TrEMBL record:
<keyword id="KW-0547">Nucleotide-binding</keyword>
<dbReference type="InterPro" id="IPR003593">
    <property type="entry name" value="AAA+_ATPase"/>
</dbReference>
<protein>
    <submittedName>
        <fullName>ABC transporter ATP-binding protein</fullName>
    </submittedName>
</protein>
<dbReference type="InterPro" id="IPR003439">
    <property type="entry name" value="ABC_transporter-like_ATP-bd"/>
</dbReference>
<dbReference type="Pfam" id="PF00005">
    <property type="entry name" value="ABC_tran"/>
</dbReference>
<dbReference type="GO" id="GO:0005524">
    <property type="term" value="F:ATP binding"/>
</dbReference>
<keyword id="KW-0067">ATP-binding</keyword>
<dbReference type="InterPro" id="IPR027417">
    <property type="entry name" value="P-loop_NTPase"/>
</dbReference>
<feature type="domain" description="ABC transporter">
    <location>
        <begin position="4"/>
        <end position="230"/>
    </location>
</feature>
<comment type="similarity">
    <text>Belongs to the ABC transporter superfamily.</text>
</comment>
<keyword id="KW-0813">Transport</keyword>
Length: 303
């Protein structure tokens, strides 16, 4: 079992603070590192992989510092976000080269084992240039697994994949986590994290905004205040009826129509149809107007 631990870690590039006093522990299983673009996810992964030194604090992998520590490279694999793979090689050749770079005693056996793990044995003798995006990505995952590391870090592994390829990759991560490895993948898409991992670390503007069980964080997100645009057959009368509702914290009418602020999503969306029915008003449209990921993240940071 290999834990990855960040203890009071900050990283700055000149004046830019990319990671700000982050403490987290990753254990076996799959964890999602969720955050909007520029939040500091790549910087966190690169510090864990020993590619970057923290400016402050400590990053350890299995109790030893990650930075400049060759023993960490033996225990850890990184699938970076953008990385060229040589199109003229076959997956088999690429894997054997990767195994030799790790100075493994039997590169051929290691390549075979890694290709089996990602289910790429059938296509292993075709050139990588002929592969789909999903197959290329699986080949890169295999290369990161060739030395059988306990820890696997993946930076935005689902980017550019179609739904079927995504499902395949999700399955793969799930199986790797179930085998006792410590898996961390970054994403800026909530649903991706929801489907793959029960544990999530949310990072916003370099800070850890939330951490722990996905469902608890999801609840926190859906319990936050919501703003809705409502169009009905009688907005003015609906506004009067809504203001008396405990789930409603504010109503506003202007030229654009009726805007309602609600304390939480569930109780408002349940109450609205009943009120409209009782008043004889038809609701034509109900649109959440603050659903951007950024607004969800900034709510978490303020919470
Ligand atoms: N080498 C660098 N020099 C200066 N600033 C940097 C450098 N690398 C990253 N940054 C800055 O640090 C912050 C965090 O970047 P990082 O790439 O870690 O975020 P991210 O969450 O991975 O974003 P993305 O998903 O867009 O890659 C950003 O403001 C970025 O501009």
């Amino acid at each position: 079992m290999t834990d990855v631990v960040l203890d009071g870690v900050s990283k700055w590039y000149g004046n830019v603070v990319a990671v700000n006093d982050v403490t987290m522990t990753l254990g076996p299983g799959v964890t999602g590192l969720l955050g909007p673009n520029g939040a500091g996810k790549t910087t966190v992964l690169h510090m864990m992989a020993g590619f970057l030194a923290p400016s402050r604090g400590a990053v350890t992998v299995g109790d030893v510092p990650a930075w400049r520590n060759p023993s960490v490279y033996e225990r850890l694999g990184l699938v970076s976000e953008r990385e060229a793979v040589h199109d003229f090689l076959t997956a088999r050749e690429f894997l054997e080269v990767s195994a030799r770079l790790h100075k493994l005693p039997d590169p051929s056996a290691a390549a075979q084992r890694a290709l089996e793990l990602v289910e790429m044995t059938d296509a292993q003798n075709r050139r990588i240039g002929t592969y789909s995006k999903g197959m290329r990505q699986r080949t890169r995952v295999a290369a990161a697994l060739v030395h059988d590391p306990q820890v696997l870090l993946l930076d935005e592994p689902f980017n550019g994949m179609d739904p079927r390829q995504r499902l395949h990759m999700m399955d793969l991560l799930h199986n790797l986590g179930a085998s006792g490895r410590t898996i961390l993948f970054s994403s800026h898409i909530l649903e991706e994290v929801e489907q793959v991992s029960g544990t999530v670390q949310v990072i916003v503007a370099g800070r850890l905004a939330a951490s722990g069980d996905y469902r608890a964080i999801r609840r926190l997100m859906s319990n936050r205040p919501h703003v809705f645009a409502v169009h009905s057959t009688d907005d003015r009368r609906l506004a009067v009826a809504l203001i008396g509702q405990p789930s409603v914290t504010g109503v506003e009418i202007d030229k654009a129509g009726l805007t309602v602020r609600a304390g939480d999503y569930g109780s408002f969306t349940r109450a609205l149809p009943k009120i409209a029915l009782a008043e004889g008003i038809r609701v034509r449209r109900l649109l959440p107007s603050d659903e951007s990921l950024e607004s969800v993240f900034s709510y978490l940071v303020e919470a």
